[in-house]
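At this stage, I wrote out one protein, both as residues and as discrete backbone shape codes, and that material follows here.
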Amino acid sequence: MKDFKAFTSGAKSIEMKKYLDIDNDRVKKMLDIKLKVFNSELTPDEARALVNKTFDSITAEEFAYGEQHLYDAGITDEIMAEGMDDILDVFKDVLVTSDLNLPAGHPIQTYADEATVLKKLVTEMELKLKAKFIKNEWLERYTKLSQINTHFSRKQHQLFSALERKGFDRPSKIMWTFDDRVRDAIKAAFELLNADKDKEFLDAQPHVIHLVRDILQKESDVLYPTSLKLISDEEFVEMRISDDEIGYCLIENPPTYKGLKKNSKPEPAVGKTGNEESLLNDLKAVFEKHGIANSVSKDDLLDVSTGRLTLEQINLIYRHLQVDLSFVDENDEVRFYTDTKHRIFPRSAGVIGRKVQNCHPRESLHLVEGVINAFRKGEQEKAEFWIDKGEKFIYITFTALRDEKGNYKGTLESMQEVSRIRSLTGSRRLLAWEDDKTDKEEKSAKADGAENNYGISPETVIGPLLERFPFIKAFLVSLSPEFDKLENPAIFNTMKEVATLNMISQVGGMQVNNLVQKIVKEISINT
């Protein structure tokens, strides 16, 4: 094993320790015990007894600081992920936990509030296992439980990003694996439920419940308190702004967080303002860095490859593209993404400046690195992927960017939901507006028998429909993850009296005629 000073003197260790009050002797003792468990020199029970004899208490930040250096001591991410439950069990008697006591709106308090609701939900599920099986009741619970993906997404894109800037990158490498295990278990169980495999579904519930409770406990014990030590209050103020872009899990949007100190005015960071000025600031900073202009205003005309545009026009073009773009530079750092309304996968300003390797779960990292390495070596110029989600078909391309001399300058990712494009046939040579299209789809729906005894058509408003048939909400969420928004009270209350099935179908990437028919069929089965 390396000398302790050797593997705690790297750049990440030095950066992380700037924000923590760490006693190296205590950390060394703790690290020695962890390594002996990972190397099978001590059983977990033996290690737990030694920990209890050696320490009265261990703080979350001390525990986290030790985790950061296990990799340097030869403990890979794979070994860490498999052995983390044993390690937490070894230290559970001395690991200090305390109430957060944070104001509403603080990002960490928001995670904790979501966790409270999720814990209540899995307790309800546990009790439901002892009652008579009723599919619609389980559909309702799983529709809610699936919103944990929003909790994970915000954590992965916002919190992990902030921790990485402090030298603490083990959460994004290890906890992302645990998040995926929870997500996959919920998805698999949901599929069993929809397939009417009742016994298999019920048999899967103890595992799902355990995984959800386990990840929430890991967050509470280590992630939240360590984050509060490493991340400044000003950064949390900034983080709160971008949190809204991703959304929240089973809670209403929290209030604005303005900081623990009165009149807190954090310095705005390029690319992290969370509003429409962020792209303008990014572009302006790039131009000034390369000496193109000492001061570029949004109205100044700039020479681009095939024209002249202002920064404001560039920003508008990017915001209205029908394709999502992300740019990773030659140093593998995320430098840009388009903030479009139809964004397929969540993004937040916290991703800017982050290593792309930390933006993906460990299990898929080899694909990302394989593409980038092939581009960097000049072996390939383009890679394409597609994801078939039934009603949604997502087409993704990665393109190598090179300068005039052929030097690799980064990777451009483009992503588009193309289910409607794939369904087009024949030709359209005459102008047709969306209203015309809706009229035709409504006529088509009537011709196909979609307008029926229930009176449901493309113009049916979602609110009254769900009041009449409450189980349809869970059914819609089972059709597309985009319908998760129906479970958000703030969003649903805003849209319930105005959103028609035609509007809803566009959100879910479905043909309205097809959606109406599915709803009618589900109602006929359950009434």
Notes: Confidence is low (pLDDT under 50) at residues 262-276, 437-451. The chain has five domains: 4-91, 107-246, 283-320, 321-424, 437-526.
